[in-house]
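Reviewer 2 asked us to include a model.

Predict the structure of this chain.
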Amino acid sequence: MKIATYNVNGIHARLPVLLRWLTETQPDVACLQELKTPQEKFPEQALLDIGYQAIWHGQKSWNGIAILAKGQKPEEVGRGLAGDPEDDQSRYLEARVNGVLIGCLYLPNGNPAPGPKFDYKLQWFDRFRARAAELLSSNSPVVLAGDYNVIPTEMDAYKPERWVEDALFRPETRAAFEQLIAQGWTDALRQLHPNETIYTFWDYFRNAYGRNAGLRIDHLLLSPDLAGKLASAGVDHEVRGWEKSSDHGPVWIKLDL
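Predicted model (structure tokens):
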């Protein structure tokens, strides 16, 4: 089973890229972030035309997530996180596909930090960790996939010293991610590529992609029962170089189920 995550940075602007990537790589499940489209304008038919059914949680101009499945409809489990009834940002969606529970997330960026946006990021992270703990206790096979807006270690950033004060790399952010992993989750890319330089995001400025001056901020975390079934993992690095592409590259895993 191949599961991917991809921050599309505007699904309408990147639709040709998304459709090409799905057609060429054929993931069984694809989690998308940053749709930047209202619920009613999601391009459902274009995805159906290439064999993908979807559930999605749109939001005008910002945020938005979706879960796509090849040849079947994802069975929605829930949307949003408990703990803040006033939070209306579309950042979390759960579905079951082929017996695997998929959590698709777009964690807040948090900049500028410190400040209200950084406070929201950490509060959202707390709520997400609470949900992750519930999922672990359910004993279901779970994959938590998405744009975490977290640079876990210095190894995950080109010139990490430049990111010390950034919300993606501040000590509080990395500590929150470490606490999440400590629940029992496996960081799939690092599990199979512990010492490699791997990036999933390259800024549009200063030829970052051409210089491979990137960040690893898109992650797939596996519950303990899936960690032993991890067969391969990688980043579709070349997609970032396609015309009018997102500033993220798709990240994927293959599970031997």
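The radius of gyration is 17 Å. The chain has a mean pLDDT of 98. We have added this to the supplementary material.
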